[in-house]
Each structure stands twice: as C-alpha cells, then as structure tokens.
Amino acid sequence: MTLQTITRQLKPYELQIKSGTHHTGLYSWLIKNLPIEPIRNARVHGAYSKVIELLMGLIGSKRLSEVEVRDLRQYISMLAPAIEHFERKNYPIRSATAEQVLKFLMEQHGLNQDDLSEDLGGQPVVSDIIHGKRKLTREHIERLSKRFHISPATFFPD
C-alpha cells in the first residue's frame, strides 16, 4: 500500500478529528518538530524530559495566551505517558523497607536519633532499628505514624 493510498483512506477522518480542536501554530510546530514517539533509549528520554520541563516553565510564566497554554498542556498530556512507560520499564522503583522509610522521614524533618529516642524507647533502640539490627514493633509504628501524621501502612512494603 502506498502513502498516497493510505492518506486518501484517512482523509475523511481528518475533518472529523480537526473540527473539535482549535490550536495555535505552536501546537502544530510541536507535533511536527518534536513528534511523540515511543522512547527507546536514555538519550531520547532525557530530551523529552527537558522538553516537558521547558514547557511547564513556559506555562508557569504567565506570558502565553490561554490557547497557547491549552496547546502546551495537550502536548504534555500526550508526551507524559511515553515518558512514564519508559521510566517504569527502565527505572523501576523498589519498595522501601520500614527502616528506609524511617531514615527518610528523619532526614526530611531534620531529626537525629536522639529526637526519636522517646518515641522508640531510647537512642540505642533507634540506632538498632536504623541499622537493621532490630525491627519496628506495632507500637513503634503507631507512635511514628502519629508523630509524622502519616498512615501506619507507610511502614509496610507493598
């Protein structure tokens, strides 16, 4: 089948699809010059990620018309699934252990072992938990959940 045959067969649908959209030249430029294709390597992933970062910055700048912002959002909404698919396949996120969750929470809140000693039964207990020598108990998890205002489920891997 030739390109001419394919375009002739698709032509009746062009008007139906285009009739519901009103785009600026920006959208057409994006689709033509930065076509959305499956991401096959890290170089292309990086480029698409930079494109989204740049477009999000433009949207936040408040220098574009409503139609231009809508066009950028539509383009991003079509590109984001390709990025997400590549990242899930190539950069899987592993479940964190309860100890890793605790370390993260301590870091995010600027806490040290002494700060949690009262909640967990002393500084040596905190140290043992963080270094994997001791497991968090149900009581520890309840106290930490209240302290950090999070669900107890946060401490259980998927």
* Average predicted confidence as pLDDT: 89
The total number of structural domains is 2
- Count of β-strands: 0
The major beta sheet can be summarized as: none
* Element order: H for helix, E for strand: HHHHHHHH
- The best one-word shape is elongated
- Estimated share of beta-strand residues: under 5%
**Residue share in helices?**
55-70%
Class by alpha and beta content: mainly alpha
- Count of discrete alpha- or pi-helical segments spanning 4 or more residues: 8
Low-confidence stretches: none
Rg on CA atoms, Å: 25 Å
Distance between termini? 49 Å
Task: Write up what this structure looks like.
Helix 2 (25-33) packs parallel to helix 4. The chain has 2 domains: 3-90, no CATH class; 98-155, Orthogonal Bundle (434 Repressor (Amino-terminal Domain)). The protein has helices spanning 3-18, 25-33, 42-60, 66-90, 98-108, 113-120, 123-130, 138-148. Helix content is 68%, strand content 0%.
